[in-house]
């Protein structure tokens, strides 16, 4: 499993959580590392939260018959892609956003989380890293921490 993070400290946490490769995207080229360590084969599945200029790099990192699932576009909503690579590699590129989904779909997702995902947390097969917990009244401070990118893990707002 490969992951990217914005600091060496965050990369260390990713490795401690089970990543085989944790790449500091500020100092290392993830395309070169992924292709170099996979004997130029690439990876089967990519979860893309960046979009924008990262999409072509992810296409380059994808293996034959690979899949790229885009769930956010923090790096930009528009991208010019190399369609030749997409076709030659027989890639599947999908996108999904939760917000526009109808309530019935959201209810199904919530039920699946309850039945499938939460038991994995209970069995310690999945782990969540909590960086900080703020009372709702301190939402501004929580947001400032998130914008600073100094946290490692989730920032939780506590509603009582």
From TrEMBL:
GO terms for molecular function: NADPH binding; quinone reductase (NADPH) activity. This is NAD(P)H-quinone oxidoreductase. InterPro entries: NAD(P)-bd_dom_sf. Its EC number is 1.6.5.5. Keywords: NADP, Oxidoreductase. The keyword DNA-binding does not apply. The lineage of its organism: Bacteria, Pseudomonadati, Pseudomonadota, Gammaproteobacteria, Thiotrichales. SUPFAM superfamilies: NAD(P)-binding Rossmann-fold domains (SSF51735). PANTHER family: OS02G0805600 PROTEIN (PTHR48106:SF8), QUINONE OXIDOREDUCTASE PIG3-RELATED (PTHR48106).
């Amino acid at each position: 499993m490969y992951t990217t993070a914005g600091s060496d400290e965050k990369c260390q946490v990713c490795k401690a959580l089970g990543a085989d490769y944790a790449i500091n995207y500020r100092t290392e080229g993830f395309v070169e590392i992924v292709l170099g360590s996979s004997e130029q084969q690439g990876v089967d599945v990519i979860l893309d939260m960046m979009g924008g200029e990262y999409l072509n790099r992810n296409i380059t990192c994808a293996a034959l018959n690979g899949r790229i699932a885009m769930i956010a576009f923090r790096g930009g909503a528009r991208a010019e892609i190399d369609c030749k690579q997409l076709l030659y590699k027989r890639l599947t590129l999908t996108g999904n956003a939760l917000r526009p989904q109808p309530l019935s779909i959201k209810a199904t997702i919530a039920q699946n989380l309850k039945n499938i995902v939460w038991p994995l947390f209970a069995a310690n097969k999945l782990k969540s890293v909590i960086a900080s917990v703020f009372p709702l009244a301190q939402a501004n401070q929580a947001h400032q921490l998130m914008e600073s990118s100094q946290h490692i893990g989730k920032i939780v707002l506590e509603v009582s």
